[in-house]
Amino acid sequence: MKAITVTQLNNQVKSILESHFQIVLVEGEVSKVTYHSSGHLYFTIKDEKSSINCAMWRGNLSKMKFKLKEGDKIYVYGALNVYVPRGEYKIIVESIEPVGIGALQLAFERLKEELKNLGYFDESRKKPLPKYPKKIAIITSSTAAALQDMLRIARKRWLLSEFYLFNTLVQGEEAAEDIARNIKKANEYVFEDGSKFDLIIVGRGGGSKEDLWAFNERVVADAIFESEIPIISAVGHEIDYLISDFVADKRAATPSNAMEIALPDKNEILMMIDEMINSFAFKMENILLKKEKALNHLLELYEANSIEKKIEMFEKEILFFKEQFFIKINNIITKKEMEVDNLSRLFELASPKNKLNLLEEEIKNLRENLRNKTQEILNFKSSFIESLKDAYELANPKKREKKGFAEIVKNGKRIALEEIKIDDVFNIENTSLSIKVKALDKKEM
Fold this sequence. Notes:
The chain is α/β, with parallel strands linked by helices. It has helices at 6-20, 58-61, 103-117, 145-157, 175-188, 218-226, 243-247, 255-262, 266-305, 307-350, 353-395, 397-400, and strands at 24-35, 41-46, 51-56, 73-83, 88-98, 135-140, 162-167, 199-204, 231-235, 250-251, 407-410, 413-414, 425-429, 434-438. It starts with 5 loop residues before the first helix and ends in a 7-residue tail after the last strand. The chain is rod-shaped, with a radius of gyration of 56 Å. The longest helix is centred in the C-terminal third of the chain and has 44 residues, at 307-350. The chain folds into 4 domains: 6-100, CATH 2.40.50.140; 110-264, Hypothetical protein af1403, domain 2 (Rossmann fold); 307-400; 407-438, no CATH class.
């Protein structure tokens, strides 16, 4: 047998292996994962007894939806390749699928776990949605049926909001970057009056997992997380949950539901306004009734304590005393008449004519004194009533005012001039004018 060189042997092995194992599908456990700075991926797969090195070039690696981790169970699809200088062979991998779970689902779960650990889903960082948004940015495709569904719901619910469309790719390889780019544009957009968007809605209608995948990309999650404006994620149907749903400030089950969440219902607002009007009218009526009762009570107190009422009471009291006086005078006169009658009878019995004349004179004097006294009392009481009336007229603010007359009021109370101290601030008031003054000096007069 003729000897051959090492290189010749390796070349023969290379030719045999690469011709017989152009395509292989190998199952194994991942170890020694290296993502090289060149963009290539190097790793090893193994089972209980052996292992083999693998390489995946940058072009195929860019299509992978998940990152390899130590211990992953995977299917490797590719071709054998022999490196002649070292006599080594490896699998040049074209695609990788996880064992037991789809690649997309694995990528979804891993990114979800990573973002959760970074705090992307924390409720504490989620921004509240505006109650009455004025300007809303919609990030979706201009040709999407979901856009028309959203606008239809918006017209039914609320007519005071303005909507601005950022026409966006929502599926395909470039969709994630386009979505993230338009989220940033919406955040940076400033209107002529200096205002910005109040709310952003990111979404699209339903589709397959692959169709919706752009909303599971890290670049979209980062853009939503970094947004200063509240974002509603409205992707797919109610059963679809995407990374954008977890990161957004609010998830909507559908694009239509996003408008129901974002906008108030005008009918509910109108009903609320009607209830407020009814409540206001009811409360105002109660307030007016209470104030009316209080006013009537004050009026009764005023009437009970007014000068007119007191004068009326004094007049009744004077009339009462006058009646009592006349009753007593009449009793005295009656008594004296009875005494005269008795004396007259005694005189008739004893015939003392002189005594009778004296008694008649005495009675005459008593009558005169009585009349004089009565008139004197009546005159005094009449003068007293007139003086009360004059005092009332003088106390009436509208009639007592004359030139140079005013009241001194301090802290809302009328006080005497003697109570004023130097540097005191008080008001001098009459019925039509109030002047604030300060005491500069005080002298005894």
